[in-house]
Amino acid sequence: MVHHNAQKPAVVVTLTGAAGQIGYATLFRIASGAMLGANTRIRLNLLEIPQALGALEGTAMELTDCSFDLLDGVNIFSDPRRAFEGCDVALLVGAKPRSKGMERADLLEANGAIFSEQGRALNEGASSDVRVTVVGNPANTNALITASHAPDIPLERFTALTRLDHNRAVAQLAKATGVHPRDIEGVAIWGNHSASQFPSLEHATIAGRAALEVLAEKNLGEQWLSKEFIPRVANRGAEIIQVRGGSSVGSAANAALEHVNLWNTSNSVKGPQITSMAVPSTGEYGVEEGLICSFPVTCGGGEYRVQEGLKLSEAGRRRFEKSVEELRQEKAAVESLGLLGNR
Ligand SMILES: NC(=O)c1ccc[n+]([C@@H]2O[C@H](COP(=O)([O-])OP(=O)(O)OC[C@H]3O[C@@H](n4cnc5c(N)ncnc54)[C@H](O)[C@@H]3O)[C@@H](O)[C@H]2O)c1
Ligand SMILES: O=C(O)C[C@H](O)C(=O)O
């Protein structure tokens, strides 16, 4: 889907919430090629609510002022139907972020309506090869809502961001073991992008050695995993809100770009690797079909594959189950609010 030839037509990237914080931290990097590579021309369709169009106009002027080689045009919209017309890559960021003391699930109703409308608009106008990434919270369930209103787009095209959690897990493991993040592979986020997620080190390696073995040598065992590592990663979003006074922006933008990059380019910046993505379950690991659940995946060229056959410990399996149960409950909640379409 992504064109590596400068003669091919530009890829249409639609970004929602484009005047927001993550939007601002994302746009200039997208336009410079950090997301789809240095040979892919881009046309940006930016969507905002009417009150934010003024600020967005200013951002569009700044994008113009960069004279980016790869940027073929910037259009701004407040009508989702127009913003998603011909869209190849959709980044759904626009939503209300949580503030101190809220859980991401508290945003279900507030943000659900936005994603129903955008799902319908994608269904009507997006290009036949569209790939969708949901960042706005609660991301997994918002992706479920979006997909449910876009029955003509294959279900596997709808994903939600857990790359941020993945990167956080890598960072915490690197810190605990005194290695560089680049030496770590095989970390995985299982379940929901929420405090119930299971960030797993069970198949992770550090410079080729089992991470659990390296941790054991440092006397970091199950106690450290359950009392330090897992809660640290799973609650990192809340910790950032507490310390920074607002939800994560730069790290979220970076993770969103990496998610799209790893999924959609064949020569991802970081090379082939296992990442974490929330994708529609097709029954992997016994997860109910259709739930948008984070798994370890390998991906590239617009495709992804859930890594199958990994054995989780009993404790890991229980943690994962708990997070999947939360996804089921979120699905039931949006169903009862009438937010699911008829896919
Ligand atoms: N999945 C993740 O890992 C992750 C990480 C960080 C943040 N987030 C989420 O990303 C979202 C955006 O965060 P932010 O810090 O940029 O927030 P922000 O408030 O700075 O920006 C959100 C923007 O969305 C716009 N918006 C609202 N409704 C819209 C609609 N119907 N159509 C288009 N735009 C709309 C707002 O006007 C605003 O400009 C939040 O939901 C936040 O919780 C997710
Ligand atoms: O935690 C939040 O509300 C924002 C985001 O999902 C994060 O993980 O930082």
Would you write up a description of this structure?
This protein has 343 residues and is of the alpha/beta class. It has two domains: 150 residues, 3-Layer(aba) Sandwich (Rossmann fold), CATH 3.40.50; 168 residues, Lactate dehydrogenase/glycoside hydrolase, family 4, C-terminal (L-2-Hydroxyisocaproate Dehydrogenase, Chain A, domain 2), CATH 3.90.110.10. Helices cover 41% and strands 18% of the residues. The strands form three sheets. The protein has a nine-stranded mixed beta sheet, with helices on both faces. A three-stranded antiparallel beta sheet has the order 7-10-11. Helix 1 packs across helix 10. The chain is globular, with a radius of gyration of 19 Å. The model has no long low-confidence stretch (mean pLDDT 94). It binds nicotinamide-adenine-dinucleotide (NAD) and (2S)-2-hydroxybutanedioic acid (LMR). Belongs to the LDH/MDH superfamily. MDH type 2 family.
Low-confidence stretches: none
pLDDT averaged over residues: 94
Largest sheet: number of strands, sense, barrel closure: 9 strands, mixed
- CATH level-four homologous superfamily name of the largest domain: Lactate dehydrogenase/glycoside hydrolase, family 4, C-terminal
Share of β-strand residues: 15-25%
What is the percent of helical residues? 40-55%
Bound molecules: nicotinamide-adenine-dinucleotide, (2S)-2-hydroxybutanedioic acid
Overall geometric form: globular
Derived from helix and strand composition plus strand pairing, the structural class reads: alpha/beta
Q: How far apart are the first and last residues' alpha carbons, in Å?
A: 24 Å
What's the CATH topology name of the largest domain? L-2-Hydroxyisocaproate Dehydrogenase, Chain A, domain 2
Main-sheet strand order equals 3-2-1-4-5-6-12-13-14
Q: What is the count of structural domains?
A: 2
CATH architecture classification name of the largest domain? Alpha-Beta Complex
Compute the CA-based radius of gyration.
19 Å
Number of strands: 14
H and E string: EHEHEHEHEHEHEEEEEHHHHEEEH
The CATH C-level class name of the largest domain: Alpha Beta
| Total of helices | 11
